[in-house]
Amino acid sequence: MDKYAELYFYVDDAHGMSIHGKHGRGFVLSKYNIHPQMAMATSLNKAFATGGGVLVYGSKEMARKVGTVGGPLLSSGPMQPSALGAAIASAGIHLSDEIIDMQAQLKDNLYFTRLMLEKYKLPVISQAGAAIFFVGVSMPKLGHNLVKKMLEAGFYVNLGVFPTVPMKQTGVRFTITRLHTFIEIEKMVSTLANAFPIAMEEENITLSEIYKAFKVPMPEEALIEKSVDSVIKQSLQLKLNHYASINDIDKKEWDDVFEGKGTFDWHGLHLLEASFTGNEVPQDNWLFDYLTIKGLNGNIIVATFLTTALWKDDMLSPKEVTASIEIKRITDPYYLTSKVTCTGSLLTEGEHLFIDKTSPLWKEAVQLLLQKIYVLQEKYKSNNIVLRDFQQPDIVFDDLMVDNGFFKVSMPDTHAITAMPWNNKKEFYDSLSNKSKDHVRKHVLSNNDQFKVEVIKISDWEEEIDYWYGLYLNVKNKSLELNTFPLPLKLFYQLAKDKNWEMLQLTFIDETLRNDDKPCCIVFSYKSKNAYLPIIIGLDYAYNLKMGIYRQALYQLVLRAKALGKQKLLLGFSATVEKQKFGAKPIATHAYMHLKDSFNVEAISSISMLTKAAHK
Amino acid sequence: MEISIGEYCQFTLRGKMNLIENYGKFECLKVFDKKRITVFKLFDFYVEVIREPFTKYIIQADPITSKSLLQFYNLIG
Q1: A174-199: b (≥16 Cβ within 10 Å) or e
Q2: Which of A51, A94, A167, A370 could form a disulfide with A83 if both were Cys (CB 3.0 to 4.6 A apart)?
Q3: Do A99-232 and A416-588 share a fold?
Q4: Domain membership flag for residue B77
């Protein structure tokens, strides 16, 4: 701080207060003097044993500044007189020699506790000098199990759980005071040690998995147990297969599970792999992993594919937040981005995770899958895991995911026309609600004859594809609701020559309108077994409002899906109102996420608060 | 559960007494050289607690590591 005038040091020494230093001034001030660029916060609720808190500043100016602009976010109030009285009494003790003896007694208790935890071989993650201890359990389900067992045995301990700690780094927390006796401490630790293996067995978590979750090497003795675990695992009735390319998987086996569910049948994934490898920039290079878990009879119980790619952390943030972050990305393109391992990919939508819930082993298979995904997360050093595009509410599955370190988040609604029981344009029109009919008549059919509609099955004309890419970038740059990196041009070349994809192109019949004969809209769609999936759209926004290009495109897509004999039209995220006018139903979608580090999420949350405040 | 001599020595005098009270087994009492000495077996070692003979104020509670001292207290043959 002496070297850097702009470096400020904010210290939270709540857990060091009273325990350490002369007059119990805390750990930090017992080691260093306060610096003019330093502010220290401490709590009077902990070892000080009263209430309230204290802020210590290195300069009067800083104290003035914080006092002026650093008020409470929600509400605040004065300390209650009783707490104030207790605080004065406690301060008296701190200023007397009595504190020295008390500190020594507490330190004995803390040292004894550390010894007991070590003797009883509990997975203590860090050896802090504070009075709060943290025994790692990894998954929340094991933590809840242990807390219950401890309560039944007469010991009240609590949990350190997400979001205070990362989801997979849950731990049992307890506080030791000066007044605990050694016998009490030993009883508590021995009870925890007895309950630990029983709870681990019940929750199917091993000691090695706990240490791994905290990235702490296992103690030597526990390594023996680890080898036993792996033998038990091998004897399970499930077989996990991991492939790094779709080329390594039998086409029929994969398509039996995923054909018709989206653009991720065998052929679709082959194209994705070709498009998202060997590119120049990191965001265009994805890692692909394919996982299947089979039972003893060889039937697939769980299957999915994962991509690991660079995502913008504000992908699902409100437009205003994304807009302010994008300004920063002009100079720092990877600002607030993270590597994410997700089921499916940024270009696919649908049921990416197949689970045969008729199998009695489906839960075990999902757990095995999650363990493998965690391994991949470590291998690729991804910050987040996202399991996405779940549509049906399933409480049992929710619980399973939460127990295994995930939390549930809502995704934007997806949209689908799931039945097309009409035979021609008129019948389609008649099938719509009165309100939608009005909309379609006024905004679509009224200028229907001003568009030339073409379906292009294959193109290798570079100039044309480059132009389509430009139309796509128009949409991409305007759409901040789902903020992603732009797709690479290489993908468009691949799509344009692929037999399972086609391009629906709209051009104004009146060439004088734009002074050229180039198209004003392009839609890249995937033709799956039963469904038609428009995936990428490009538009000329200069004429969209006037000519209703997007609406016209939606209408033409409905007609095209029918013409191809498809039973479903899957229209994807966003533009709910427009899509509903054509009979599409919004479908609530959710995902499960696991964050290794929530720093970026918290940074976005702060930006969001600042943006809201600025708008007010 | 056992605590070693090294671990025992990390405690303050009050902590050592706490351990002796909770886990120690009385062996013998001697008044020697104007001091009142009580010997306890604690886990797998012995501890001598030395007090002022009149005030009974505890001066120290250290492990006995000397073989001759152990023989003096008749703790080993």
Answers
A1: bebebebebeebbebbebbbebbeeb
A2: A51
A3: no
A4: no
